[in-house]
Amino acid sequence: MIDRLTKTFRGAEHGSLSVEAVFAFPMMVIAITMTFVIWDAFKTLNSSQNATYTVADMLSRQTTPVDADYLTSMHEIFNFLSDGAGGNALRVSVVTMTEDPETLVRTKVLVWSKGVGGINGYADLKPLGNRVPDMAVGDELIVVESEQNWAPAFNVGLSGYRFRDVEISRPRFAPQLVWSDV
Known about the structure:
The protein has 182 residues and is an alpha+beta fold. Helix content is 38%, strand content 23%. The termini are far apart.
């Protein structure tokens, strides 16, 4: 009798789909959740890069002096374009190339640097390091740096991150981007 029940149990295949579903369903949920979180991270990175590029492009077209209100408006545009819920910051620096007429030594000089959203402007060029490329004497570059916080919606092994982007552009319609304290 036990032998017959064992053969019947061993040969029965009904209910196997339910057992497989019990094992597969949690793995599918985890895979879909991880895909969602990773997709969200790349979406945040992409929107942050695009917003930084847009702000740099707007500043490169500026023909009138820039002031604190204008920079705050650029920060608000960055927040809107990047879908930032807070914790975003923006720094704008202007760098020019000078040349000593006696020694013909070319030097990059920080013209001005201002930050908004919790970061300050630079006092010198050291923090920018080698990010500023070489340029012709008298040329000016606008360096726009942005920072955006990202936190995963679900705990799948990724921790929160602060995306940092840098966009460098040249003034297009004016020879320089001027800062105004007035």
